[in-house]
Amino acid sequence: MPDIYTLAWYNALQDLLNGNPDVEKNAPRGRYKMLAELRGDGASPYVSGGKSLFFVVHFDDGSCTEYSELAESPPRKEFDFIFEFPASVFEGIAAAIVDPIEAGLKGTIKITGDMRILIRHADLVNVLYDVYAREVETGWPKGKPPYDA
Amino acid sequence: MATDPVPVRLDEQAASGLAHIVQQYLVQDLAEFEKKRRQAVRMRGRIAMSASDQDTSVTLDFRGDEIVIFDGECAPLDSSINGSYQALLRLLQGRANPLVEHLRGRLRVRSRPRRLFLPLRLHRLMKLTTEGNHAGRQV
Question: Interface pTM (ipTM) of the complex?
Answer without folding.
Answer: 0.90
